[in-house]
Write a structure and sequence with these properties.
By secondary structure, this protein is an alpha+beta fold. The strands form two sheets. Strands 1-2-3-4 form a four-stranded antiparallel sheet, sandwiched between helices. Strands 5-6-8-7 form a four-stranded mixed sheet. 21% of the residues are buried.
Length: 228
């Protein structure tokens, strides 16, 4: 009788445990610098340079928006009279030939003590006159008057032109000639005596006249308070 041999059976191989998912490679250490895609947002509040707070946005350093308001000292066109004292055709010699332009000398005034002048060039008479009027509106001055005339005599010189202005009594009118008369009429000076002593150049005479008007000052009233 065969004896049964007790042989331990070989156990079946257990399934290998599932492999753990591979770890993702670690990214670069943070350097404090924003990612490439966020540079536009960080620079101006939104992508690009035109966002709010950016170079071109509102409140930024750029030129976005109109920061300069309208000039308050530029008068309305209907209040002032214009007069062209001289229209000259001038040329400039360039490499390609001669370039012709027109030069305009314009005086404006409201006949109430405000007067200004402008000198400009343009491709035609209308363009030069328009530029001259714009300059004149930016260079207005107020002429002080006392007893319907200027407060005192004054002399001014510009280049070779010398202009003398003297007060005149009521009823005398404007005794002046050339460009000086036009300036005084548009300024609204009722009575004045003037004399051109130097050059007859209209531009220099106008500039000398305005230099003389800037020197005019009203007398300071002294209040003598009697102390008893």
């Amino acid at each position: 009788m065969n004896e049964e041999q007790n042989v331990n059976p070989i156990p079946a191989e257990a399934p290998a445990p599932a492999a753990a998912p591979a770890a993702k490679p670690a990214g670069p250490a943070p350097t404090g610098r924003p990612a490439f895609g966020n540079r536009g947002a960080n620079r101006g509040g939104s992508f690009g340079r035109g966002g709010a707070g950016g170079r071109g946005g509102a409140g930024g350093r750029g030129r976005g928006g109109d920061r300069r308001g309208p000039r308050a000292d530029v008068p309305a066109e209907a209040d002032y009279e214009e007069k062209n004292l001289e229209i000259a055709r001038v040329t400039r010699v360039t490499k390609g030939g001669k370039r012709m332009r027109f030069r305009a000398l314009t005086v404006i005034g409201n006949r109430k003590g405000r007067v200004g002048f402008g000198l400009a060039k343009g491709v035609d008479v209308a363009a030069s006159t328009s530029k001259a009027v714009t300059q004149a509106r930016k260079s207005l001055l107020t002429v002080p008057l006392m007893n319907d005339t200027i407060p005192h005599a004054v002399t001014a010189k510009f280049g070779a032109a010398v202009v003398l202005l003297k007060p005149a009594p009521k009823g005398a009118g404007i005794k002046a000639g050339g460009a000086v008369r036009s300036v005084l009429e548009l300024a609204g000076v009722p009575n004045v005596v003037s004399k051109i002593l130097g050059s007859s150049n209209k531009i220099n005479n106008v500039k000398a006249t305005f230099a003389a008007l800037k020197k005019l000052k009203l007398p300071v009233k002294k209040e003598a308070a009697a102390k008893e």
